[in-house]
Design brief:
Length: 194
């Protein structure tokens, strides 16, 4: 998986975690799965709901937000009718919305001991740091490409500065005869009226 794809997946996971928080999901955790251990997915997003309706509402909000903002649909959805454990499979990450009792019973966090658990805040901080590094690297490469062009700019800038001066001189010289002709016409009219 490329760095670009990983960052895109992280952005999707962060959006899903924010949807959980907005719908009052409890104890939301992001498990960054060990690449060796997790052949199917990179992240698990786990959150709890206090009742079936809230679990379904959280799952619906995640699905709606990812579809609306990113055009991403889940590969499969399980458990929506019951609401005790709703699973949204987005291939690179899987969302688990549990009732609190079911989450304690299945204890996915314990089953994935090699996974690195993160809160949405910690995950967001890591995502922002990665994006900042990418921005800095892009700016450095852009400035490195701009340096050879910057050496050619002084000559072009001097030519541009000279061009307006030449144009102004031409305009003045073109205006002078026209102004003299206009003054002669006005003088001739005034003389004819007198």
């Amino acid at each position: 998986m490329t760095t670009e794809t990983q960052q895109q997946t992280r952005i999707l996971v962060q959006a899903a975690a924010q949807a959980c928080e907005d719908k009052k999901g409890e104890d939301t955790r992001i498990l960054e799965l060990d690449p060796i251990d997790a052949g199917l997915s990179d992240f698990f997003l786990v959150t709890s709901a206090s009742n079936d309706r809230q679990a379904i509402a959280i799952a619906d909000e995640i699905e709606h937000r990812l579809k609306k903002e990113f055009g991403v649909f889940p590969n499969s959805v399980e458990g929506r009718r019951q609401g005790g454990w709703v699973l949204l499979d987005y291939v690179d990450f899987v969302v688990h919305v549990f009732l609190a009792e079911r989450r304690a019973f299945y204890d996915i966090e314990r089953l994935r001991k090699s996974a690195r658990p993160l809160t949405p805040t910690e995950f967001d901080a890591e995502l922002k740091a990665a994006l900042a590094q990418k921005t800095i690297a892009a700016r450095k490469s852009a400035s490195a490409k701009a340096k050879p062009a910057a050496a050619a700019k002084p000559r072009k800038a001097a030519a541009k500065k000279a061009a307006p001066k030449k144009a102004a001189v031409k305009a003045k010289s073109a205006k002078a005869p026209a102004a003299k002709k206009a003054a002669k016409k006005i003088a001739t009219r005034n003389a004819a009226k007198a």
